[in-house]
Amino acid sequence: MRLTSEFQLRAQQERVDILANNIANISTAGFKASVVNLAEAYDAQEKSANLSLYGGVPDGAALGVGTGALYHGKRIDMSQGIITSSNNPWDIAIDGQGFFQVKPPNGDIAYTRAGMFQLDSDGMLVNQQGYALQPEVIIPPDSGEVQVKPNGNILAMIDGKQEVIAQITLANFINTDGLQQISNNLFLETPESGVAQTGAPGSNDFGEVKSGAIEQSNVDLATAMTNLVQAQKAYQMDAKMIQQEDDMFAKANALRR
Hints:
By secondary structure, this protein is α+β, with helices and mostly antiparallel strands. It has two domains: about 1-80 and about 220-255, no CATH class; about 85-215, no CATH class. Helices cover about 25% and strands about 30% of the residues. It has three helices and 18 strands. A three-stranded antiparallel beta sheet has the order 6-5-9, with no helix packed on it. A three-stranded antiparallel beta sheet has the order 10-11-12, with no helix packed on it. A two-stranded antiparallel ribbon has the order 1-2. The radius of gyration is 24 Å and the shape is elongated.
């Protein structure tokens, strides 16, 4: 009984932490909420089903048959966030499926829905962390007015003539639930996600891009707050149960003396 209660308490604490992180990132552009599952694991088949449903990413533990222990599964909700307008043409939102590709200092390719870009001193398009968009987009210093089209074409006035000077390429995955989250809005490819498939915005199943727009977090504040309150109450109940068990054991030991 004690072991079951401790597992339940740990699972509820993880649930509280995840929900609190969702709420903390409600204003983080491109943030995708984590979805938590707490379900009693009766047998290996049910545990396997939970793993499949929640992206094959185990996070927690299940005890034996009939213990009533909670199995904790987690996946990332990749649903579209609300797109809002901005005054920066290099704020680019994806309307539909796909990820921007950026390169952190370690040389890996990371994937993000946060398209708040800017030009560095070399005219290269980089995100807020300074990670270059991939494939690299470099805007010549003598470019006139620049436009980003829904298909990812970047147009500029060169010698009085509008020309395509760069192309934004998006990436997508067979199983986005299998992506590894490395920060609030950055992901890495994994064997579970499959290899990144790339293409132009608007082609195949890729969404189009919108210039002067930001995709907001997809966290629903009202739902998240309700779930957090429920999780906190469940945690308090489990903690109280453990305390009651401790008191019972203490009384039983006292009677033996």
